[in-house]
Design brief:
elongated, 0% strand, 79% helix, single chain
Length: 110
C-alpha cells in the first residue's frame, strides 16, 4: 500500500487526471504481474517436483508437494483475476497501457 501511495503522490500533487493516474497504475501492473505469475509457476513446478520425487515412501514430502502445487495454482488464478480486473478498469475508462517490455497489450489479445 505504501508503495502505491508513493507512486501516486506526485501524480496527485500535480493535479493529474483520473485517467493519467489509472494509466500509471496499469503500467506498473503490466511490469509486476508477469514477474509474479512466473514466480507462482516456478513455485507450482517446485511442488510438482517435490511431489514426484517424494515417491510413495515419504508421505510428508508428497503432502508438502501437493500443498505447494495447490498454492501455486491459487496464486496463478489470483494473479490472472487481478490482471483481468486491471484490463476491465482500463477498458472502462478508455485507458491504453504504456509502452514497455511488460506491456499487457502485447500479452493479452483483445
Amino acid at each position: 500500500m505504501f508503495v502505491v501511495g508513493v507512486v501516486l503522490l506526485p501524480a496527485l500533487a500535480l493535479s493529474a487526471t483520473v485517467q493519467s493516474i489509472l494509466s500509471n497504475v496499469q503500467e506498473i501492473f503490466s511490469y509486476v504481474i508477469p514477474i509474479i505469475m512466473t514466480l507462482a509457476l516456478i513455485y507450482f513446478f517446485w511442488g510438482l517436483a517435490s511431489y514426484i520425487l517424494g515417491g510413495s515412501s515419504d508421505e510428508t514430502k508428497r503432502a508438502e508437494g501437493r500443498s505447494m502445487m495447490i498454492y501455486g495454482i491459487i496464486a496463478l488464478f489470483v494473479m490472472s483475476a487481478v490482471w483481468g480486473l486491471v484490463r476491465v478498469v482500463g477498458n472502462t475508462f478508455n485507458i491504453t497501457p504504456g509502452e514497455g517490455p511488460g506491456n499487457s497489450q502485447n500479452l493479452i489479445p483483445r
